């Protein structure tokens, strides 16, 4: 008997497979198609010749843990203990899975804000806990009335995602004020903050859970080197949590992957000495603006994009099709693969929206938008 009978092939895999089958330009799955920083590959080449090919320590390569602590202080003015409060993970997904498995007991509830990434619900179900889905407003701002109503004495965790995938929405200071009030009223509540796109924001600076000291003893943050450095295939990220919570997370991590790729950790430790993460937002803002300018002759309506490398568009003005049917027609008839936003809602809520990934080289974006201009 399947423990995850309802889980099938993800929409990301489905659309990428269809893109390959029909020779479509793949703006669906969230990965860059341009080359990574030459400094990174040079460091990788050098490290491959060093004695870094055996197991790294379970929690992470010590120099990398130190660099993460320095990065957190520089970015958010938060001091963390690299030995007790930082964990290198096999991607952000493993960090989320380990945190939920470690901290959520059977019968407890976890609040998820929809539309939401599909990796949140599975570890909750595997804990025999209950996912409680709360929809954001249709402009993708938090619905605090609904969130407050969903949290009760049995709620163990609230998962937040900022900047938000799939919509590119970012939280405001007022949102964090409301979150603090909610947490103060529910002292048993843990906040899991998915911040994998933290360095990819545009007009407004990223606001992090790290900047709120009231959360330091009851929150887990999840970050991604894969997203920040265009190396999604390396599957490497990190988690920061207070020592009592981290102690439990490490227990799961130890028996889930034990430790993360040693060469990748050694490479990133050195790379953090030379890379300027503050430039990442500017790089992707240029990508966003370039893509939006190219789309000016397309009949789709582009929604605001405040962060991430995703652009949401409405097709409500040109079709009554479901977003899945529209996405398939767009792929088959026009040769551009996207993701329907209904895939991020467990009930399939359909707002006539699709998501593009603009983390692509200029030639790919130019060709994709030429095809989209023909859309009718």
TrEMBL record:
Entry's SUPFAM superfamilies? PLP-dependent transferases
Which Gene3D superfamilies is this protein grouped with?
Aspartate Aminotransferase, domain 1 (3.90.1150.10), Type I PLP-dependent aspartate aminotransferase-like (Major domain) (3.40.640.10)
Query: What keyword terms does UniProt attach to this protein?
Result: Aminotransferase, Pyridoxal phosphate, Transferase
Which co-factor is required? pyridoxal 5'-phosphate
An annotated Gene Ontology molecular function:
kynurenine-oxoglutarate transaminase activity
User: Which residue windows are coiled coil?
Assistant: none
Going by the entry's taxonomy, the superkingdom of the source organism is recorded as Bacteria
Q: Name one GO cellular component term.
A: cytoplasm
Q: Say if the entry is tagged with keyword Transferase.
A: yes
Residue limits of the Aminotransferase class I/classII large domain? 25-371
Q: Sorted alphabetically, which CDD domains does this protein's record hold?
A: AAT_like
Q: Which family does it belong to?
A: Belongs to the class-I pyridoxal-phosphate-dependent aminotransferase family.
PANTHER family, sorted: FI04487P
Query: Would you tell me the protein name for this molecule?
Result: Aminotransferase class I/II-fold pyridoxal phosphate-dependent enzyme
What is the species listed in this Swiss-Prot or TrEMBL entry? Flavobacterium silvisoli
